[in-house]
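Something for you to look into today, if you have time. What I am after is a single protein written out in full by you. I want to see for myself how the chain folds. Could you add the entry underneath, on a fresh line?
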Amino acid sequence: MSNAFRELLKKVGSGNHTGENLTRAEAATATKMMLLGEAKPAQIGAFLIAHRIKRPTGEELAGMLDAYEELGPKLQPITSTRPAMVLGLPYDGRTRTAPISPVIALLLAAAGQPVVMHGGDRLPTKYGLPLIEIWQGLGVDWTALPLAKTQQVFEQTNIGFVYTPVHFPLTNAMWEYRDQLGKRPPLATMELIWCPYAGDAHIVAGFVHPPTEAMFRVALDLRKVPKYTLIKGLEGSCDLPRDRTAIIALSQTPQEIERLLLSPHDYGITTKNVPLGTTAELLTQIQGVLAGQPGELMQTALWNAGFYLWRSGICSDMPSGITKAAELFTHGAVAAKLQELRQAIKIC
């Protein structure tokens, strides 16, 4: 098997003049061989860094997603009139700006929109604050749930979290390579658009560099994903920025993309991102938002919630989305959803 992998490594690692892109099938094979340990450690390290230098294509990302679909876990479809919104966020977390995604997940679920998230612990290369720690700080510990129990929680609350160290242990061995190489490999790009949900899904992913958006679109179109939203978000997340115009791509049809430019100033939102302090400070700020208290993180929550309520079809436009979000916070619906989620996990 290592000889077969060597041929794939030669294609991506032969330099500008003789190197080649992998086909979708070859990218799927290479990904499976790395996850299953069929390639030798030296080959895996060489492949990951060579592929990063070469840069992946959309077709290669589609192949990697094929491998994850074959080997990875999936939450099963739940009864809903809306596609589950799958939020793709960098697994290595946040270091500069305060994350708001768990709050948005709670709000969307309270409004009837199913949400799926995925990720693990503090991971290379950034070792930033991951979603799982924020959830734990809110009294929601996803780490001890087998996938069947997570499915039950998802069905009861409209929120599911695929915790990869437990639910997809084949990926665990890859993190040592990422740490030793010191750079994100293309697998990290692919994970942003991975969909661990077997039902009708709406993929939401963040990106930093414009070429990444183009790769995402090719990969998702090849995999015939009908609905997706791509956001030039904070630290590569799908959190909308407040210090600049948000650049967003919305799928309409397989051949049509709408480009959306959203300025927070136009919607009465202050134009300053909330810096990330300690985890304890963030959790205190989040508790204030859940209690409906005004503040800078509430501005971030309203800005993001207004967009996602509109994009999910719950509200007809951004202003009504922001108004509805404010009502859900001040009337205690989001805090009640958190309590429901805590109780559901406790029972499971």
About this structure: Residues 98 and 276 are 4 Å apart (CA to CA).
